[in-house]
């Protein structure tokens, strides 16, 4: 089933779009249940108030795609270049997802919620994550460089490694267990 150019309040169940091109489509209030979008190109598409549940979007291409209040729940999103998305009203939420090796560099995404999500190797270089929440998230090998984490809550995140001198972390919350990852560059022992 190929979506129309404009799709409002539609539900897509177990649809397979693998390695297709969906150019210039608009989805407003749509729900995608267990759909396979792996390798799909969404060039110039817009998603407004949409929800992806149990979907595979690994290696999907999102050039100039608008993600405006989009929730991803239990989705596989490996290697996605979110930095290629349209910046206008960019707002996403991730719950129980695998976002490993994806890119958000230079995105403005304050108050973003990442809950129970694996972010292994994700690039947040020069990203604005002000007041964002990383609730029980795996941050192994995440790139934080010139990242704004002002007021962010990382208190339940784990495998955190970041340089406080290269990132803005004022009022950010960290667990005591995270101290070694914050002080790693100083080559000191914390016992």
Topology (SSEs and partners):
Elements: E1 6-8, E2 11-13, E3 26-28, E4 31-33, E5 46-48, E6 51-53, E7 66-73, E8 91-95, E9 113-115, E10 133-135, E11 153-154, E12 173-174, H1 179-183
Parallel strand pairs: 1-3, 2-4, 3-5, 4-6, 5-7, 6-7, 7-8, 8-9, 9-10, 11-12
What does this structure look like?
The protein is mainly beta and 191 residues long. The protein has 2 domains: 18-82, Pectate Lyase C-like (3 Solenoid); 99-181, Pectate Lyase C-like (3 Solenoid), CATH 2.160.20.80. Helices cover 3% and strands 21% of the residues. The chain has 1 helix and 12 strands; from the N terminus they run E-E-E-E-E-E-E-E-E-E-E-E-H. The protein has one helix at residues 179-183, and strands at 6-8, 11-13, 26-28, 31-33, 46-48, 51-53, 66-73, 91-95, 113-115, 133-135, 153-154, 173-174. Strands 1, 2, 3, 4, 5, 6, 7, 8, 9 and 10 form a 10-stranded parallel sheet that branches. A two-stranded parallel ribbon has the order 11-12. It is elongated.
How far apart are the termini?
Answer: 58 Å
Are there runs of 5+ residues with pLDDT below 50, and where? none
- Annotated CATH architecture of the largest domain: 3 Solenoid
Please state the overall shape, judged from the principal axes of the Cα atoms.
elongated
């Amino acid at each position: 089933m190929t979506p129309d150019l404009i799709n409002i309040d539609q539900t897509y169940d177990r649809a397979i779009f693998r390695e297709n091109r969906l150019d210039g489509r608009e989805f407003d209030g749509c729900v995608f249940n267990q759909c396979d979008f792996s390798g799909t190109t969404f060039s110039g598409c817009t998603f407004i108030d949409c929800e992806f549940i149990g979907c595979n979007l690994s290696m999907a291409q999102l050039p100039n795609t608008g993600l405006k209040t989009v929730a991803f729940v239990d989705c596989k999103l490996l290697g996605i270049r979110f930095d290629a998305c349209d910046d206008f009203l960019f707002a996403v939420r991730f719950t129980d997802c695998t976002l490993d090796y994806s890119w958000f560099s230079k995105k403005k995404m304050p108050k973003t919620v990442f809950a129970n999500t694996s972010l292994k190797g994700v690039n947040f270089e020069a990203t604005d994550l002000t007041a964002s929440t990383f609730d029980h998230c795996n941050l192994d090998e995440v790139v934080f460089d010139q990242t704004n984490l002002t007021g962010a809550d990382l208190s339940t995140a784990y495998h955190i490694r970041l340089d406080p001198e290269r990132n803005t972390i004022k009022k950010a919350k960290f667990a005591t267990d995270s101290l070694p990852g914050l002080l790693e560059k100083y080559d000191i022992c914390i016992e």
